[in-house]
Amino acid sequence: xxxxxxxxxxxxxxxxxxxxxxxxxxxxxxxxxxxxxxxxxxxxxxxxxxxxxxxxxxxxxxxxxxxxxxxxxxxxxxxxxxxxxxxxxxxxxxxxxxxxxxxxxxxxxxxxxxxxxxxxxxxxxxxxxxxxxxxxxxxxxxxxxxxxxxxxxxxxxxxxxxxxxxxxxxxxxxxxxxxxxxxxxxxxxxxxxxxxxxxxxxxxxxxxxxxxxxxxxxxxxxxxxxxxxxxxxxxxxxxxxxxxxxxxxxxxxxxxxxxxxxxxxxxxxxxxxxxxxxxxxxxxxxxxxxxxxxxxxxxxxxxxxxxxxxxxxxxxxxxxxxxxxxxxxx
Length: 330
Known about the structure:
By secondary structure, the chain is of the alpha/beta class. It contains twelve helices and 13 strands. The termini are far apart. The longest helix has 21 residues. Strands 3-2-1-4-5-6-11 form a seven-stranded parallel β-sheet, with helices on both faces. It has one domain: NAD(P)-binding Rossmann-like Domain (Rossmann fold, 3-Layer(aba) Sandwich), CATH 3.40.50.720. It is globular, with a radius of gyration of 19 Å. Helix 1 runs parallel beside helix 2, helix 7 runs parallel beside helix 9 and helix 9 crosses helix 11.
């Protein structure tokens, strides 16, 4: 049994990774600042699920309110446990929002990662996993995106801070020998997802007969990746790799309108679309080259977009009253 520090444990990916670790019998030290980027009630819902899971698991779940941008808070937690690995999933997410408030992204995504790396060095934590993003590929037109592609042209502060965190991780690997896995996630979706993400908005708004916002013409393609596959890949990243970057994607890009049509059929309602201009930080398509993830980690996605949408809509229907009462994300 290992003690694994999971930052952002009340977030979408952090919650699912923590849950899976507990099912595997690991001990999870979960930290989150439960900020109001979207309605905190959803984060609190996830936290209660983790506490319940922790009581029934072999390893147990210990939760601490902590902003990873505060070095002293991070240091206190790391000094109180013998931590075997850090999985850093705490982040300010959202491409468009980062254009409006870049400072918050700098504090969490870059400074927060630095604080965790410093504590990993000081307390001899040998393994570090960083959540990065497909957004670092910018407006690359070569498909699929490979980890060897140029990522020097970030289109928004969000992707710029994530790229900076990747590079900072390499420095600490080089200087102090910390074994580091970096994951570039591709458009994660699924039950209990982020309310600011497209699929969550589509399902809720279509059900409520409210307009859904579509930037551009709806023909943008995204490599939508189901949350269970992402959590599985993230945990597989705990193996020793030296320093390596991996893509985690579904390897099957689909158009936004295809996803919307599936949701319409599942809910039995027609979408009212609010067409908006394409945002300058948006890109036309994403597609992950996952060959190295298959070869080095033994990981591949198991959930098709069709099955994933069905499971996501089913979760929404089962939790309809709760979701309807969440404040709309910006």
